[in-house]
Amino acid sequence: MTANDAAAGWWSSLPLDRVVRLRGATEHELAEAVNPLPSGAPSIVFFAVDPATANRAADLVDAVVTGLENAAVDAVPLWLGEFAHHEGSSTLDRRAARVTAVRLAADTPHFGPYVAALAESAVAGLRPRRNAFTVETRAAGSARILASAQQRRSTALVLVVPSGLDGDVIGTAAEWLCNHARTAVWVTGGGGSGTDRFPSVSVRAPAVPAGVSTVLDRFRPVSYPPIAGQPHPASEPEKRLYRALDLHEWAAGREHNRTIRLGELTRPFTVDVLWRTERIVVEIDGNEHRAADRFAEDRVRDNQLQTHGYLVLRFTNAQVIDDPHRAVATIREAVSRRRSKGDPR
């Protein structure tokens, strides 16, 4: 990889139409480098292979396709714009979602009946029926939806393979997914070296400090970076807070999943919610933040933000889910105070 490729991103020199093995960077480094998803990248989806589903290629394919399909349902607010953050689940709501999805598919490469079924599942709060469509239709359809949700033309599937798995099983499944889901498949992880039938490509990504969790730690088996400006589709607390804040005019001007870089020599990082003018950051912490290393890393980030004039508000997942109005009231008070005092810098 050239210096220009490294600057553009680890994904920039990789093929989008075949299977390759990645070497030179860990899966966590790859994931953190695309959080949030950069504008020049394809829709990048990570799948952590469970050894229990990798005894046969067909079982692994089924697990991956089911994961992609569930992710496509979670991402409905991003690809079915009319129903963004929709909360109704009545028969009329489900029917309206189907009609909207079919209308969307009419002018796109999407298969109408399939996107209609996923839209209805999302509105109903259910997972789609796996036997309603062939596995080939589900594979190609869900990969296409994920690309559309992130406003990309293609999807790249990163298979994270643990050590000790049968290379032939991984290789056969990877080739099937590449051919039928019509997506790039990039194999990484300790077991990736067992797939010798594929070319190996060296990639580089910035190191991730010990204790820092990535989307791979938050969402499994399917993980994918958020889109800058949107709550993560797989994070119910982020979506819940987004909807709660969207009801208030004073919350205008906020940004979700935005990268902050405090100086030329500091490492950029992503925050959950940001009021840039008021210099307020809101973070929503899952259970992974309780780990000692992650807790310490959070404090380092908070200190860096505070020394640059930012106010940091932290809520747990439970606080946002159980009492979003209280979280919103706390945020409103902070925003009001900052605005009343003028430029916090």
Helical content band: 40-55%
By DSSP (H or I, 4+ residues per run), the number of helices equals 13
**What's the pLDDT, averaged over the residues?**
88
Low-confidence stretches: 1-7
The description of the largest β-sheet is: 6 strands, mixed
| Strand and helix order | HEHEHHHHHEHEEHEHEEEHEHH
Radius of gyration: 21 Å
Q: Structural class of the secondary elements?
A: alpha/beta
| Outline | globular
Cα end-to-end separation: 41 Å
Strand order across the largest sheet: 5-1-4-3-2-6
Count of distinct structural domains: 2
* Proportion of beta-strand residues: 15-25%
Q: Please tally the β strands and state the result.
A: 10
Domain DUF559: 237-335
Protein name: DUF559 domain-containing protein
Pfam families: DUF559 (PF04480)
Structure description:
The protein has 345 residues and is an alpha/beta fold. It has 2 domains: 16-223, no CATH class; 236-340, VSR Endonuclease (Endonuclease, Chain A). It has 13 helices and 10 strands. Helix 3 (57-74) packs across helix 6 (112-124) and helix 10 (236-245) packs across helix 13. The radius of gyration is 21 Å and the shape is globular. The protein starts with a helix and ends in a 5-residue tail after the last helix. 39% of the residues are buried. The model is unreliable at 1-7 (pLDDT under 50).
Task: Record the SSE blueprint.
Blueprint (H helix, E strand, L loop, with lengths): L2 H6 L10 E5 L3 H7 L9 E6 L8 H18 L1 H4 L11 H16 L5 H13 L10 H15 L5 E6 L6 H14 L3 E5 L11 E3 L12 H4 L3 E2 L12 H10 L8 E7 L8 E7 L4 E6 L6 H16 L3 E6 H6 L1 H17 L5
Parallel strand pairs: 1-4, 1-5, 2-3, 3-4, 9-10
Antiparallel strand pairs: 2-6, 7-8, 8-9
